[in-house]
Write a structure and sequence with these properties.
The strands form five sheets. A seven-stranded mixed sheet has the order 8-7-6-9-12-17-18, with helices on both faces. Strands 13-10-11-16 form a four-stranded mixed sheet, with helices on one face. The longest helix has about 40 residues. Helices cover about 40% and strands about 20% of the residues. α1 runs antiparallel to α2. β7, α7 and β8 form a beta-alpha-beta unit. It is α/β, with parallel strands linked by helices and about 350 residues long. The radius of gyration is 20 Å and the shape is globular. It has two domains: about 130 residues, translation initiation factor eif-2b, domain 1 (Four Helix Bundle (Hemerythrin (Met), subunit A), Up-down Bundle); about 210 residues, Rossmann fold (3-Layer(aba) Sandwich).
Length: about 350
Amino acid sequence: MNVGGKPRRTIWVEPDGAVGIIDQTKLPHDLVTRRLATWEDAAGAIATMQVRGAPLIGVAAAYGLALAMRAEASDANLARARAGLAATRPTAVNLQWALQEMASALETFAPADRARAAFERAGELAEADVETCRRIGEHGVALIEAAARKKRGPVNVLTHCNAGWLATVDWGTALAPIFLAHRQGLDLHVWVDETRPRSQGLLTAWELAQEGVPHTLVVDNAGGHLMQHGQVDLCLVGTDRTTRRGDVCNKIGTYLKALAAHDNQVPFYAAVPASSIDWALEDGVRDIPIEQRDAREVLEVAGRGRDGALASVRVAGEGTRAANWAFDVTPARLVTGLVTERGVCEASAAGLHRLFPER
């Protein structure tokens, strides 16, 4: 995707074999890159959200195992690195999926060949993610085109969290249809939820600005008001885990947007790569583990001060406690449809089975 008019990806292999990433904790104020030299570096980048977004987390973990194999290709180190990486983020199913893909591939190689095979397999997973997101974009464009045929003026899309190229290797999931629609000349505008407490909406706004897509940043609680007044034509969000019956786990606050959309007859879609579907789970509300993060993310906000320096500022009074659930689950009954790399389907076991009969 475009950064300053130049194409970029979120993760890459450096000439010396280290793995390069964009440090997303510095965005949207500064574009900073980091080098990951060990699997512990990769685990730290995932845990601290230097890399974030379910698809990118999976690919970063895959490269983390490759770095582990470059250091020591034993079975013991493979198991140790896999366990350490798996413990970083509990909700995004892509993490476990990518680690399983890597482990299955590496078990067939002798230790002397594992480092080469690991980097090759991680690269394959990265390229597959790019293609998956591109296809999601192509299928999702039809939703924006359908909305455009029903009205005059721009199609207004509401997003929550960041599911753009920063959350993947390239293109993004929920933002891929928006990027493609804009490049095709469709008239559209994006309402960008700020998405507290990590404010991933600021990343969405930054991406849209880089692409020149018209957008407006709004506070999280504005979505219902906008829908009541007919200013949202469709909602389009990503997912960190979707169950086999179509329950969608996404950033905290997504469920409330789906309730508002349902009450105002606004279509609500989730962009779902197959790697984010947990075929072993049915009831998302009951069975998906919800990550609870550091309370300081709620008690403090980060930004650039008048002196130009980045700083964290406490916004809550002393003695105030905070709870910080990172995700919630939107039941399938509130989801109009799922946009996958194989097409769009209803949010149900039957709908997913139609697109993924092998499962």
